[in-house]
Amino acid sequence: MKIGVFDSGYGGLTILEKIRERLPQYDYIYLGDNARTPYGTRSFEVVYQYTWQCVKKLFEMDCELVILACNTASAKALRSIQQNELLHYYPNRRVLGVIRPTAERVDALTKTRVVGLVATDGTVQSNSYSLEVGKLFPDIQVINQACPMWVPLIENNEHQSAGADFFVKKYLDQLLAKNASIDTLILGCTHYPLLLQKIEHYLPSHIHIVTQGNIVADSLADYLERHPEIEQACSKGGKTRFLTTESAEKFQSSASIFLQETIEAEHISLD
Ligand code: DGL
């Protein structure tokens, strides 16, 4: 079996990159639903339907374990997939998200117990981070800030432009105006590491920034260690296939913004 990594588009590549650095021996299939991205502004029902369709596709392609490398899909679809589809129809398959492992990390970082979250509209509206962090560490408060322009800037390769400076500063200022005690900031969207330099520039230097790639990679390594039956079933050729619901050529050229390598992509249809 292979390990599936899913995102609405290119953002999950920031997670895949760190997973492959940490666990290079396994075979991966990355699936980007680029034809229907962004998910961040879509309803619960639609994100659930789209995500489940993609996860099912990865199941059909021999991925028994799928990582939702997308906060929006983790926030809006993971629980339903686990409780409806896996429980009743696919008891031997596993789908893991990115929110829980990220929430586990903030305790060690925050002294003020006030943590900021920047994410898509969908993730913010789901309130998933407040709920997940609250379950683990009830004394930590999460202050949410939706950043609807950040994904489009990145997807359009404008993340190094002056326009990006404007929108990075704008949303960070809005967040800090809500609570000046924030000492930790979660980048709760897998696209956002591409804006890291600008975020560091506009954020006061005492605020810790939490990016998810290494966190998810560590959490997958730990999961495989705790589940040797799954680890043993994983094929170990060190290869990755890249699938997209959009054009393969487009994916190949845009993926180079996210990964420091040239890749070959394949178009797939979800029917
Ligand atoms: N990369 C996705 C996430 O982590 C967001 C992109 C989208 O809006 O589809 O939330």
Description:
It is a single chain. By secondary structure, this protein is of the alpha/beta class. It folds into 2 domains: 150 residues, Rossmann fold (3-Layer(aba) Sandwich); 112 residues, Rossmann fold (3-Layer(aba) Sandwich), CATH 3.40.50.1860. Helix content is 47%, strand content 17%. The protein is built from 13 helices and 10 strands. The strands form 2 sheets. It has a 6-stranded parallel beta sheet. A 4-stranded parallel beta sheet has the order 6-5-7-8, sandwiched between helices. α13 links the parallel β9 and β10. α1 packs across α11 and α5 crosses α7. The two termini are 22 Å apart. The mean pLDDT is 96. It binds D-glutamic acid (DGL).
